[in-house]
Each structure stands twice: as C-alpha cells, then as structure tokens.
Amino acid sequence: MKKWISPSLLAITFVLSAIGHYANWDHTLQFVLSAIAVVFVAGFLGRATESVAHYAGQRLGGFLNATFGNAAELIIAFFLVREGLYDMVKASLTGSIIGNLLLVLGLSIFAGGLKYKVQNFNVTLAGLNGSLMIVGVIALFVPAVFLNTHSITELETDTLSLVVAGVLIISYLAWLGFSMITHKKYLDDVTEDKEEELPNEHAPSWSKGKSILYLILATVMVAFVSEWLVGTLESLTERFGLSELFVGAFLVAIIGNAAEHSAAILLAMKNKIGAAVEIAVGSSLQIALFVAPVLIFASYFTGNTMDIVFTTIELVAIGVAVFIAKSITQDGATNWYEGLLLLAVYIILGVSFFLV
Amino acid sequence: MKKWISPSLLAITFVLSAIGHYANWDHTLQFVLSAIAVVFVAGFLGRATESVAHYAGQRLGGFLNATFGNAAELIIAFFLVREGLYDMVKASLTGSIIGNLLLVLGLSIFAGGLKYKVQNFNVTLAGLNGSLMIVGVIALFVPAVFLNTHSITELETDTLSLVVAGVLIISYLAWLGFSMITHKKYLDDVTEDKEEELPNEHAPSWSKGKSILYLILATVMVAFVSEWLVGTLESLTERFGLSELFVGAFLVAIIGNAAEHSAAILLAMKNKIGAAVEIAVGSSLQIALFVAPVLIFASYFTGNTMDIVFTTIELVAIGVAVFIAKSITQDGATNWYEGLLLLAVYIILGVSFFLV
Amino acid sequence: MKKWISPSLLAITFVLSAIGHYANWDHTLQFVLSAIAVVFVAGFLGRATESVAHYAGQRLGGFLNATFGNAAELIIAFFLVREGLYDMVKASLTGSIIGNLLLVLGLSIFAGGLKYKVQNFNVTLAGLNGSLMIVGVIALFVPAVFLNTHSITELETDTLSLVVAGVLIISYLAWLGFSMITHKKYLDDVTEDKEEELPNEHAPSWSKGKSILYLILATVMVAFVSEWLVGTLESLTERFGLSELFVGAFLVAIIGNAAEHSAAILLAMKNKIGAAVEIAVGSSLQIALFVAPVLIFASYFTGNTMDIVFTTIELVAIGVAVFIAKSITQDGATNWYEGLLLLAVYIILGVSFFLV
Asked: What PANTHER family does the record tag this protein with (chains A, B, C) (predicted)?
C-alpha cells in the first residue's frame, strides 16, 4: 500500500495542480488536477501522521493531525471572516463538525471494523470526549434559544457571543492541559500494541525529526491543494445548481477534511482506532471549542462581530451528529455496524441539506 | 401457571370471538369476547416463544417473537395505507414504539425485578440498541425540522421520505446481518443459564418443530383476534368520546402488542430478561427502522406517497421514550425501580394524549 | 480547617444578622451581616453533615443533607405560592436545580479533583440518578410541548399538572424505598474508606445523637439566615437593575443552596465524592420530583392551581444541566476537568439569563 505514495508522483501532481491554479486554467481541469493531487498529498499526510504517532503515541499523534488538519480550515475561514461572509463561515464550520463526527469517524470505524471484529480504545477518553461534545452543543444551542424567545439587542447578542466564545476557549485550553499534562497517562490508549508492534514491518521508515518535518510539510501541501480545489468548486457547483448551504456544509467540508479522512481511515485499518477517533472527534471538538470562538474574536476586531447564533438546521445537524457519535463511542469499543450507522445519519443529513 | 392455558379453553374462546366478529354481534359483546380470547391466545404465544427461545437462544427467540408480533401490525397498517389513512398509521406506529419501549419493557423489568434483585443482559447489545434507537429518532426528527423551517415542495418531501426510508431499511437489514451473522456470539446473552437450566421442569414440553409450528400458529391467532378487537374499539370509543390520537397511539397499540406484552413479561419473570428486552426494544426498532419505511414505499406504489413527517407530539413522545429507555437499558442491568420509571413516563404521555 | 468554625463566632454572626433583620437595619448592612453569617452557619452545617455521614454512611448522610438543605427552599416557596407568585417560584426551582447540578456539583468535583487525581463513586447509582433526572426533564417538557402545540383549556392544564405531579411524587417515594430499603447495599459507596478511615483524625468529634441534633440545628439556622439574606436581595438588586429571572434563578438559588455548597465541597475535598454527588444530584432530584409537585398540590388547595408549565428558557436551562451532569457522572468517576466543564455551562447559562 505504501508503494504508490511515490515521492515523484506526489511532486508532479502537486506542481501540476499549482500551475493549473495560478495560470487560471479551465475550472473543470483545475478541479480534476487538484482532486488527483489531494489523493496523493493526503496519502503522504496519512503516512507522516502514522510515523509521528509511532513516536508520540496514538493520542498526541492524533491531536497533531487534527490540529494540522484544521489549520487549513482556520486560514480559509479567516479570509471569509475578513470579507464578512459569516453565513458561509458557519455553514463550513457546521459541515466540518458533522463531517468529522459522521463521515470521517464513520468510515474509519467501518473500514477498521471490516478487518477487526472489535476495536477498543480508552473508555474514559470516550466519556470525556462525549462531555466536551455536549458542552459544544450547549454553547451553540443556548444563545440561539435565548435569541429566538426574547428580544435582545445586537450589542447584547455580541456580548453573549464573546462571553460564550471566551468560556469555550478557556475550556479548550484547559482540556489540552488536562489531557496532555495532568491526566496524560490516565487517557492513554488501550495497549493492544504489545501483540501488534512485534514485526519490524511496522517500524516507521523515517526518523523522529523527519517524521515531524514531513507532517508539517504534508499539512501545508494539503492546505494549499484544498484551497485550490475549493476555489474551483463554486463555479462548478453553480453549473450544477447546488445550494450554498449544501456546498458549504458538505462539499467544502469533505474536501477540506481530506487530511483527516485519509489519515484516520488508514490508522483504523491498522487497528489504531484510538488515534483515528482522536483525529475525527478531536478535530470536531477543536472546531467547536477553539476555531469557531477564535473566529468570533477575530471578527470583533474587524468592528463587525460575528455572533454565535447558528441557524436551526445547522444546530440540529450538529446536535444530531453529537448524539449519535457520543452514543457509539461511549463504550470505547467499535465495530463495522457502528460505522455504518454514522454514515447512515450522514446520508440523511446530506440529502436533507441537498433538498433545501 | 401453565395449567390455565388449556387447549380446549383456547380453542373455545378463539372460536367464540370469531363467530362474534363474523356474525357481527353487538360491539360490546364482541369486545368482551375478543378481549378474553386475547388473554388465552397471548398466553399460548408466550409459551410457544419460550419454547422456541429454549432451542434458539434468547436473542433469536426474542427476534422471532418481535417479528411475529409486528406481523399483525404490519398487516393492519397496510390496509390503512391502502385507504390513505396516513395520520392513523403514524399514530399507531408511534403508539407501538412507545408502547413497546415504555409499557412492555417497563412491565417486564418491573415484574422481573420483583422476583430478582438485579437482572443482567449483554451490555454491548444494550449499547447498540441505544444507538439504533437514536438513529430511528434522528431519521424521523431531521425531515420534520427541515419541513418546518423551510418551504419544501411536496415532491421534495416525498423524495426525502423515500431516501430516509431506504437508508433505514438498509440499516435494519445490515443490523440483522451484524447481529445474526458476523457478531452473533459477541451479542450473546449473559449466561446465567448455567445455574438456571438445571432442573428439568424448565425443559420445554414441545419438540423443536412443534414449537416453531405453534409459534406461527399462535402469532396468526393473535393477529386475527387483535384485528377483531380493534374493529370493535372505534364504535366503543366513540361512545366514550375519546380522541383518535389517544385511541390510535394507546388503545390500538396496547391491544396490538398483546403478544409482546405477555411473552416479554413471562420471560422476564423467568429471569430471561435478555429475551424480554429483545422483544420490547427489538420490536420497537423493527417498527421504526423497517415497518414504517416499508409502509412509505408501499404508499409510493399507490401513487400517493406517505411522507415521513410525524407531528410534533408524536416526535416528542418517541424521542422521550427513546431517551429514558436508552438511559435505563444502557448498563445492561435492570431492577424493579427502573421498570417503574418507564411506566411513569408512559402514564405521563398517556394522560397528555388523552387530554389533547 | 475546622478551627475557624468557632462556636462563639458562629453565635455572634448569627445573632447580629438576626438583630439586623428584625430591627430592619439598612439593607446593605443587613446583606453584609447575613452573608458573613451564612459562611459560618454553612460551615457548621457541613461539619454536622460530615459527622452524620460518618455514622450513617455517605449516601444516607448525603440524603439527609439534601433534604435539610431543601427544607429552607420549600418553606420560602410555600410563602410565595400563598401569595400566588408562581413565576418566581418556578424561576427559583429552576435556579435551584441548575445550581445544584452545575455549580454545587461542578465546584465539588473541581475542588475534589485538585486534591485527588480521580474520584470514584457507585456507577450503578450514577446511572439511576441519570435516569431519574431524565424523568424529571420529561415530566416538565411533555406538558409544555402539549400546551404549546394544542389549545388546551385551563382545567385540562390543571388536571395534567396534578396528574404529572402525582406521578412524580409516587416515583420519588418509590425511589426512597428502593434506595434506602430494597436495594440499599446495591447502591453503596465505593469502599475507598478502608484506606482512608484508618487515622483517628477522621473520627468525628461528636457522638451520633449530637451529630443529628447539630445537623437539624444547623439546617434551621441556614434556613433563617438564607431568608434574611433573600429579603435584602430584592431592594439591592433593584438598585443594580437586575432582571427578576436572573435574581430568582441565580442569586436566590446560590444563597438558598449555601448549605449544599459548603457541605458538598468539603466532602469532595475529603475524597467522599459519593456523598458530595448525593447532595448535589440528590438535592436537584428532590426539587424536581418532590418539592415542585408538592407545591403544585399545595397551590391546588389555595383554589388557584399552579401549572407545571415552565417557560422555554427554564426548560432549556434544566434540560441542558441534566444532559451535561448525566454525561459527566455516568461513569462513576470524576476529575477536575469535569468539574470545570460543569462550571463552564453554568457561566454560559448565567450570562444568558443576565442579559435577557
């Protein structure tokens, strides 16, 4: 499997895609080129993540991957915020959360489950992840309810948004302290490694330093290619008459999360389901508890604060995704059928968004 | 206890009830006769299920019982669909789901709990059942929210309904494959059987073939008697001025689920709580994930598609029933108080429906 | 730590506060005096509870504390009901429920978690508490939905309220029978006591009889001081222009629950997290399942029944608090971060209520 990630093919597809973008070739051609490049770049990223995870442990590796994976989204969202396109920002944040919780997690659990009957990960971590997800939903849900049932001034809405955003950022930073420092061991992966790690085919081909370097490089490449791909999407989707909500919440999110997708699925298929869950769930938590609040503060400095009030449909989509993901992960064990259930919910939401 | 299910009494009450129905006797008399017949027929079904469960294991026995129990409802619903009475179909589906999750499950856990301090069943199965229930709620909830917040054409509503129905049917068939084939052992009952099955009083009095034959026969009889009873209800309830919603969701559902009621309670009192849960929860899952979607497709072929949009009250009732049932079953252990809580929620819903 | 609860200081602050109240001194002075008195009285109560818990076990001790703690609220609420101030009653009930589930529980878990890496309590009890909380939410939620979607007469609303109240009271009394009689041992605390109880510094300084006497005395003192404090609040808050909803749901609730606060936090810091959870969760359950229904019946006898229909915001606040508290307690293990999450949700709700 690793053979096809040839360095030369990786470089060629990336460069071709770059030329297509900057020379402004036909959008359909650009789309095809960058789509091919995404496959190779994501594969590269997956391999780098796996290598780093080997040195750093599944959880830190997963966290690094989730963070690097979200870097692209944060950058894109910053540009959208500067242009005041708040609805599109919220749609893509929503899409990113449900894409990670349903599509990435679903495919990982499903693919891993086809190879391994049952896959286990730290059940305490699963419970904490669930609680964090619920806090994220509450933080989005409560302001929306208050706004819909009471007449609140714009100033009060902004104040509420900033306070909630601040609470979320503090919660997220405290979570990093908790999970990386005070309770690191407590949340460690289930050690199925002992039986697994024996054959030396599993030894990574890169050194520790090289692995980290490649992880950063691959993430940057993914960020670029994702943006080029997203750039072509709008004109393409106009041609096919798709709604903005569907494009923002599904197409952009799927492509923007290509890194998480490939890395998580590859890890799950190597029975490292703990790292796969960390990528998928960790990435969605990072978006809800860190990326979204940071964007609200960033918008505040542009003089036109983005409020934290999502639309009813977005709230329902996030709430629904959190409930089923929490229900499926909370016992710390997964199987193919649970992956299929997550995908079923993703399809139901996707068709609903498509038809609106 | 088994003594009173005398074959002759069974036959006499059944035949009397049949004559009353086809000769169109006075409705009150018909009601009394078929109500008495239901008691005997349901007792017969309970005994046959228990016997099959002895040969097939608690879970397959429970599944068979749930399926045969729902056959009656499916047949009745088909007739209602053919006549376009979609509101009544939805009310009776709702009633069947909450009746199984609250009344059947509640009485089983309560009755079993009075005899045994704590009853255990497979905790993994409990978790999966919970996730399936949540998917069922999501599938009903999401289309309703989209319809209430956006202007959607009838054609789009029908498309959404059919897609969601298709996703649910695939999920249900995959569930059968998962629970009966790929992960059969994984979901096996807690083996309290060892201590239990020793005395030969527990040996079934029927052979394997006879048990299956009797199971089918008893189910068919239940289906007939239930229909006769339901037939008399409408005129009776008109006399007492009850609302259609209450009749559809409570009276019809209670009587239509007589088979599940008696079988599940008897099994719970013999400490086979795993089979009782399988009947109650399995039956409600079958209705939400299979019976309802099949009815939608069936209605499609009549040229007037039944949409999947339930009323707010029905959604709340189903959602509430799923949450409390999930919370109570998720640890794989039950006691009398948990049964009482389920019944408390059933009473709250029943009084609310009655007063509307 | 025990040194500062000197009997003489306790008596002096209490008497000063009493004089200030009955001599009707300046409200700001009254407020300061009774606030200081609350600190000493609550400390006294915490010590008495701890002593009783030593003799009675953590759970019975926790129950006693919760009951004595709620006695104050029940008395205050009775006066409000007699004056027909139903909105304020509901706001303070709401505040009391979320205050216990988020603030008391959050501070206890956080403080205990700073001293002990992980604190454990009976996981079965945690699950049952969760189910009881959900029944409480359902009982408040269902009538509100029915009232908002259907035209129901006032008489029907009253009937529904009384029936639901009756179901709740029966459920609560059955819960006492279950947890104190039929399944007492089953719900016993995790016995970390063996290692803990060895040093005789933990031996209580009071006899069993004296402990109970002091518990009652301290509770009565808390009730008085709380009321004096609440009495000064209204004029103070008017001066600062706060909304009644915020005052009722936050200020009154925080002060009215001072007893639970101090007792629960002190117990958690002594690694008796089981008793702390029992106080916080048990107190909120008692309010939802017993105090609120009793008030409805009490109002019925005044000829003007208080209905069980809470406002949307109150329902959302209670629902949100229950979901996060259930998610955090359900594994029977707590750490500082989980306490912080509860406090984060409390802050989000507090700011929202403040801004309305």
From this structure: VACUOLAR CALCIUM ION TRANSPORTER
Distance in angstroms (rounded) separating the CA atoms of residues B188 and C184: 30
B147 touches chain A (CB under 8 A): no
Chain A residues with CB under 8 Å of C313 CB are 145-146, 149-150
H/E element, C343:
helix C336-355
Mind listing the pLDDT tens digit for each residue in B293-328? Answer: 999 998 888 888 888 889 888 999 999 999 999 999
3-state secondary structure C171-211: HHHHHHHHHHHHCCHHHCCCCCHHHHCCCHHHCCCCCHHHH
Test the B interface: residue of C125, C142, C154, C156 with most B CBs within 10 Å? C142
pLDDT over threshold 50, residue B32: yes
SS3 track for C222-259: HHHHHHHHHHHHHHHHHHHCCCHHHHHHHHHHHHHCHH
Question: Could B142 and A316 be called an inter-chain contact, meaning their C-beta atoms sit closer than 8 Å?
Answer: yes
Give the start-to-end residue ranges of the domains of chain C: 7-355
With 80 as the cut, is the pLDDT of residue B12 above it?
yes
Answer yes or no: is pLDDT of A292 > 60: yes
Which CATH number fits the domain A7-355, given the four candidates 1.20.1420.30, 3.40.50.850, 3.40.50.11540, 1.10.510.10? 1.20.1420.30
For B155-196, what is each residue's pLDDT tens digit?
888 899 999 999 999 999 999 889 888 887 777 765 544 444
Q: Are A50 and A65 in contact (CB under 8 A)?
A: no
What is the token pair recorded at C294?
């009793």
pLDDT band at C195 (very low <50, low <70, confident <90, very high): very low
On average, the pLDDT of chain A sits at 83
Angle (CA) C27 C31 C33, round 5°: 115
Long-range CB contacts (within 8 A, 24+) of C147-150:
C147/C309, C149/B311, C149/B312, C149/B313, C150/B313, C150/B356
B327/C134 touch (CB, cutoff 8 Å), yes or no: yes
Among all chains, which residue has been given the structure tokens 């629950």?
Answer: C257
Q: Name the β-bridge partners of A119.
A: A334
CA distance A106 to A262: 12
Q: Per the CB < 8 Å rule, is C127 touching B344?
A: no
ipTM higher than threshold 0.95:
no
